[in-house]
């Protein structure tokens, strides 16, 4: 049998997501950035798709529910401070762009801007959303939801992806 090697591209992507990525959503009156640690990339409906999960209790959930797009940035370099801030503070109370020193750059294909930082960027057009139904959740995952604030899964068709 031919020697089998790890598919490093997938492993690198998964590690970067686990370390924290940034989700940007543009609302009518506010653009917000939050940290995500859960995301999937694949092919759905014959299209390249990224799925992100946002808890219903988050401010970003209010924005993404009405959005037609979102962007995701997997930062390169050390962004632990910004990842921690964007994952622990609410956009209801704080301008996270200002606090982190982030600038928003015009995206190529969607209305939502991308973070103007080095990294991998994905521009996604919203194509589906699905709230998690706890009735179908494996019992051993219930401990992830002590407040019963389940995620909604947002599927975005990847219209552009690039590195800066």
Could you give a short account of the major beta sheet? 7 strands, antiparallel
Order of helices and strands: HEEEEHEHHEEEE
Radius of gyration: 16 Å
Structural class by SSE content: alpha+beta
Q: Strand order within the widest sheet?
A: 2-1-5-8-9-4-3
CATH structural fold name: Pnp Oxidase, Chain A
Mean of pLDDT: 93
So, CATH architecture?
Roll
Number of helical segments with 4 or more residues: 4
Short description:
The chain is an alpha+beta fold and 164 residues long. The protein has four helices and nine strands, in the order H-E-E-E-E-H-E-H-H-E-E-E-E.
Describe this structure in words.
The chain has 164 residues and is of the alpha+beta class. It has one domain (8-163): Pnp Oxidase, Chain A, CATH 2.30.110.10. Helix content is 20%, strand content 39%. The strands form 2 sheets. The protein has a 7-stranded antiparallel β-sheet with strand order 2-1-5-8-9-4-3. A two-stranded antiparallel ribbon has the order 6-7. A hairpin with a 2-residue loop joins strand 3 and strand 4. The radius of gyration is 16 Å and the shape is globular.
């Amino acid at each position: 049998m031919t020697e089998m090697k790890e598919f490093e591209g997938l492993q690198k992507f998964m590690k970067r997501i686990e370390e924290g990525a940034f989700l940007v959503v543009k609302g009518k009156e506010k653009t917000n950035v939050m940290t995500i640690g859960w995301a999937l990339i694949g092919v759905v409906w014959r299209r390249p798709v990224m799925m992100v999960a946002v808890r219903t209790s988050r401010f970003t959930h209010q924005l993404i529910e009405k959005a037609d797009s979102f962007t995701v940035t997997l930062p390169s370099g050390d962004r632990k401070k910004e990842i921690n801030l964007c994952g622990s503070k609410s956009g209801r109370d704080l301008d996270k762009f200002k606090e982190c020193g982030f600038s928003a750059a015009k995206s190529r294909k969607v209305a939502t801007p991308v973070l103007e930082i080095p990294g991998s960027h994905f521009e996604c057009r919203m194509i589906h959303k699905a709230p998690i139904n706890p009735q179908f959740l494996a019992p051993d995952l219930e401990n992830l939801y002590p407040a019963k604030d389940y995620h909604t899964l947002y599927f975005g068709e990847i219209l552009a992806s690039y590195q800066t």
